[in-house]
Structure formats: structure tokens, C-alpha cells
Amino acid sequence: MRQRVNALAQTIRAALVPTSTNGADVRVLEKLVRGIAMTRSDEIACDKCFERLDWFVEATVAGHGAAEAMPLVQHHLDRCDDCREEFEALLTALSVAA
């Protein structure tokens, strides 16, 4: 899978570099291609992730292996900046309160 993603990213880079004046454009496209390639058929959406986030944060703080217990939430957090920011804010709040 990783080889396919890298090959596709390299193809996109080769096609765009001669015409692109902004390297950021290429990086954005590479990130998009990687995101598409890493998509799973059993992914959850932001609303489902958010419904489970409280438990996930509490399990993380308690050291109960939240990622292993809820792999779909972890997978979503690995790919979604908005939900990851919410997770980190809740984690910080709970850690400070403890």
C-alpha cells in the first residue's frame, strides 16, 4: 500500500513540478493522495468520533489502551485535524484537572 501511495505521489509531483511555482501545491496534493489511499471501508465520520471521544480521552488518561480498544477512533484522529484538536483539548483539560 505504501509503495502505491509513494508511486502515485511521485507521479503527481513529476506532473506538477514543471508547471507549479509553489511547492506547497504539490505538498497539498501529496497529502490528499495519501489520505485517499489510507481510506478504510470501516471508517467513522466526525460525528461518530465525537460521540466516543469522551470515553477515548478518559481511557487514554487512565492508561487503558484506548487506541487498541477503539481503533476506528484512533484511525480517525490520525487523519482528522479538527477531531484531533478536540481530542488534544479534552486530554489537556482532563490532565490538568487530575
Question: How does this structure look, described?
Answer:
With 98 residues, this protein is mostly helical. The protein is built from 6 helices and no strands.
Provide a brief overview of the structure:
The protein is an all-alpha fold. Helices cover 79% and strands 0% of the residues. It contains six helices and no strands.
How are the SSEs placed, and which strands pair?
Elements: H1 2-16, H2 23-37, H3 46-62, H4 66-69, H5 71-79, H6 81-97
- Give the ordered list of helices and strands: HHHHHH
Mean pLDDT across the residues is 81
Amino- and carboxy-terminal Cα gap? 41 Å
The strand count comes to 0
Low-confidence spans: none
Portion of residues in helices?
Answer: over 70%
Estimated structural class = mainly alpha
Largest sheet: none
The geometry reads as elongated
Q: Which short descriptors sum up this protein?
A:
79% helix, 6 helices, single chain, mainly alpha, 98 residues
